[in-house]
Task: inverse folding
DNA sequence: GCGACAG
DNA sequence: ATCTTGTCGC
């Protein structure tokens, strides 16, 4: 049944259509016009359905471009600003970027972050000449209560390999990773490993890495390491953050 | 009921 | 996330 989300001219059209279909299947009756105008309850129901389509195994072709996604807010959170930075791999040099602004239409609720940030991210992605081969997202992948963090949700919508790179923990338990760069420990929840806690630079607070979509646990960590240079955050995220701020 | 809680 | 300068430490 693959691909679930055909990406054609108008790069993300398939993804948006899919979302609308899921929403209609998930809810009894709605009178909203915007596809992302969901209630928290509906959002949770949608996550439970989408989760079944996740593939947490490596499914990447040759990686020539790696992107970082960053979202920020302006005007007292009324405006959502998304930035995407596409880097060439393995040079990690900026290749292309895009920024999109939209009125914020969903509150920040732990566990439902994707519903607040993804709409703007999709608009930014549509401005790219082509989708990147791999995307690193701020936040969690499957290290989520329903195993559908923002990285997983986005990966599913655009049918691309994604990795969740969180600066703090949402769920899961773990030991303290070694102090040296590259050291890591597994992140577990309810008896299953859902990611890892990785020291991306000696002596700094570790990052929470988890597969988003089309990506295995070990690969997720390895790809993040490959995108690191001398800072705590991978170059992808640093570029996206830089472009979004100024 | 209480505490935790990505960005 | 955002409000914000200097400052402590490797």
Result:
């Amino acid at each position: 049944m693959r691909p679930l989300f055909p990406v054609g001219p108008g790069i993300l059209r398939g993804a948006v259509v899919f979302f609308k279909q899921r929403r209609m299947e998930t809810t009894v009756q709605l009178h909203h016009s915007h596809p992302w105008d969901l209630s928290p309850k509906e959002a949770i129901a949608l996550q439970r359905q989408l989760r079944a389509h996740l593939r947490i195994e490596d499914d990447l072709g040759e990686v020539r471009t790696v992107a970082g996604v960053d979202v920020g807010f302006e005007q007292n959170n009324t405006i959502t600003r998304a930035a995407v930075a596409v880097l060439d791999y393995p040079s990690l040099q900026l290749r292309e970027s895009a920024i999109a602004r939209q009125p914020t239409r969903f509150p920040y609720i732990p566990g439902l972050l994707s519903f607040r940030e993804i709409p703007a991210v999709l608009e930014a992605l549509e401005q790219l000449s082509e989708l990147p081969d791999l995307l690193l997202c701020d936040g969690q992948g499957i290290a989520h209560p329903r195993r559908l963090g923002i990285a997983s949700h986005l990966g599913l919508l655009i049918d691309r390999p994604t990795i969740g790179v969180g600066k703090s923990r949402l769920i899961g338990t773990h030991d303290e990773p070694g102090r040296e760069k590259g050291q890591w420990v597994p992140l577990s929840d309810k008896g299953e490993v859902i990611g890892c806690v990785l020291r991306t630079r000696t002596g700094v607070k570790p990052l929470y890495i988890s597969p988003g979509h089309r990506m295995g646990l070990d690969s997720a960590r390895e790809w993040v390491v490959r995108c690191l240079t001398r800072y705590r955050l991978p170059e992808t995220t640093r570029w996206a953050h830089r472009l979004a701020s100024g």
